[in-house]
Amino acid sequence: MKIYIQRAKQEKNYPELVQGYRDATFYSNDKRLKIKYADSAVATAHKTDDKELISTVYLLKGSLYYFYYKNYQSALAEYLKAYQYSKDNKDDYLKYKIIYQMGLVKSYLGYYNEGIEHFNECISYFEPKAKGNSHRNIIYNSTKGYLNSLHQIAVCYRNIKDYRKADSIIDAGLRFSKIDEFPSEKAYLTKCKGISVYHHKDYNSAITLLQKSLPVFNKEDDFYWASVADFYIGKSYLGLGKEDLAIQQFEKVDSTFQKRQFIVPEILGNYNFLIKYYHNQKDSEKELEYSKKLLKADSILNRDYKYLSEKIHKDYDTQILEESKTKLETRNKWGLGTIVILITILLIVALLAWKFYKNGKQIKLKYLELENNLIQQNQQTSLSYESVSIYANSVLSEDIFNDLQNKLKEFETNKGFKENGLTIDRLANILNTNKYYLSQYINDVKGVNFSKYLSTLRINYITKLMYEDPYYLQLKVQGLADECGIGSRQNFSDLFQEINGIRPADFVRQRKKEMEGQGGILGALS
Whole-prediction pTM value? Predict the structure, then answer.
């Protein structure tokens, strides 16, 4: 490899030199050297003025940061550079590799529906090539792209709790004829299958499948998925009532976090289990230790999320929209004189009209579904102490459980959630309780974390007002946000759509139509 690089340097054959550095990143065992070789590839590629080549090496460098370091900030910076240089190239394979990497970032940020769109595009591109009769290198690369896209889209579907769709995708991947030739991709899908059967409460099978995937993750130093697998093995042991084995797994996950300084929201609950276990053991030193680690993990996530979310939407999504707009304007300016463009425009208009009609039907269905939920809200019943999980019973005594249930019921009845800027620490003080007990109760009984619990209360409250009282249909979005305790107009709109499945403006529009039919009044939302 060094001889190849040296010869290319002497000959000033920059494309060959770039290839030499790229090969070196693959064959080097030292991940620090991999980044150095990638830096050299980038510097050399710029000497060629070949935008496609430059885009390729930036994508390579970003992938190294992602896979070997899980450094999303550095990875995204490189992906965005790759995207900038890829705009005018005709290499579809490169284009879909970038789409895939952007999907990874969006999935990590929790934008699962956007991630699904990215991975669906990749599957549509890679699947035919993986199953076709192309050159073996194309088939190999396309198969990896196809299987990895299946894995990531299954992760997204699982996180939005569409387990049926996730299971179908996982099974399709594991049935793929060449799956045994791709041990890494098979391990990812096996891990997904393990988490899936955990959700179906088949804990023994979950442990077997997850343990089967771990050797591959450990061999490849993929600590991201190794941590997730270890976490779900621990939860499976809890489901079997083997608390000591579960705690060993959770401490293993913590050890990985301390070493790598990397964690994902999915396994943040690892610390809740450890904190409550040592609280129950009356080991205040350990309880405090893991409480501090939880705060540290949370701060790392908040730091990454703020940066990544702003960066990907400002530098990637917005640019794509602007480019689409520019291309459409150029097409209209220069192409209106040709029959082909006229036909194309007519087809586009027809497609948009169909999409508009379909979207209108979807909005109406979502509204009817939401209306039905609003009617049934008053029919909800409280969960008894005996109905919660075995682990929750071991952490929360019946007295604490009942006390929290009564206090939260009073908090909800009195609309205490309307307080702007309310935090779990503040609520714990108001309720005169421990914030970790409060968090455990909300996680187990309500089935969500504190932030989602608070957001759901606020959105359900304002939605019911909008449904029952025409006055609230006259308010602007900021007025609605203020009424339910949400400070930001944008945050309110995002939460309203996330929880209700429909935008505030669409809800108001549908409600007004319904009221017109009932002799109701009209208003405006701006």
Answer: 0.57
